[in-house]
Amino acid sequence: MTTLLRPFDVNREEEMRQPLDFNRKNVLKHLDRVFKAEITSVSRLTETEKLFHLRIIDAAERDRFSFLPGQFVMVEVPGFGEVPISIAGSNSQKGFIELCIRRAGKVTTMLHRAGPGARVGIRGPFGSYFPLQKMKGHNVLLIAGGLGLAPLRSAVIHATENRADFKEVRILYGSKDTSQLLFDYQYEQWRRVDGVDLSIIVTEPAPEWHGPVGFVTDLLENITVTPDDTYAIVCGPP
């Protein structure tokens, strides 16, 4: 019996040191009903979130795999189970996806241990998508709280890659503190796009923070919205 098929206990340090083996044939047989995907790179975003870049392994399946911003996939770690994860990246390149994954349970803990070359199963995509086609020619207001920026990132990328399709694009993002801000390396890139505005607010500021303090909804007091010409997408904690 391989390590992957043993009961998982996050409190057992010796088990956490065991290497992941996603390539064993007796494990991959469980992936026949899903897309087999390979992790191509992993980036740490915060203490608890990582960004995973994945590629569908089979070229023919890669061409068939597509998604729309706002959808999610089920990610399977062989022998441990699967979790729903919102897609956080662009859909412009077929067969490639980005997932922002928070370490919160046994499956996500195993994923956080995995690196480039590890294989997982992908089912989906599932769920409703953001009606970005319907938003063409209108203002777009994107409001995210905490981890809610992960699924909204796909809409941000789409709006910046297809800038001529929309009027003003405004992003409001709230976080507990600066250490939990997601994708901070992209903020200036988004702000440099003509007609795109990004505002960030935190509830527990560090001494070096000089921006707004409060909840993301507080940012609404500083903007003017034309309801008849604006579509809003909201994602985050209630």
Describe the fold and architecture.
There is one protein chain. By secondary structure, the protein is α/β, with parallel strands linked by helices. It folds into 2 domains: 3-126, Elongation Factor Tu (Ef-tu), domain 3; 139-235, Nucleotide-binding domain of ferredoxin-NADP reductase (FNR) module (Rossmann fold), CATH 3.40.50. Helices cover 17% and strands 30% of the residues. The protein is built from 6 helices and 10 strands; from the N terminus they run ααββαβββαββαβαββ. It has helices at residues 13-16, 25-28, 59-64, 106-113, 149-161, 187-191, and strands at residues 35-44, 49-56, 72-77, 81-86, 96-102, 119-126, 139-145, 169-175, 196-202, 230-235. The protein starts with 12 loop residues before the first helix and ends with a strand. Mean pLDDT is 88; it is low at 1-32.
Q: Gist?
A:
With 238 residues, the chain is of the alpha/beta class.
Task: Please describe the structure with a list of short key phrases separated by commas or semicolons.
alpha/beta, 238 residues, Elongation Factor Tu (Ef-tu), domain 3, six-stranded antiparallel beta sheet, 2 domains, 17% helix, single chain, Rossmann fold, four-stranded parallel beta sheet
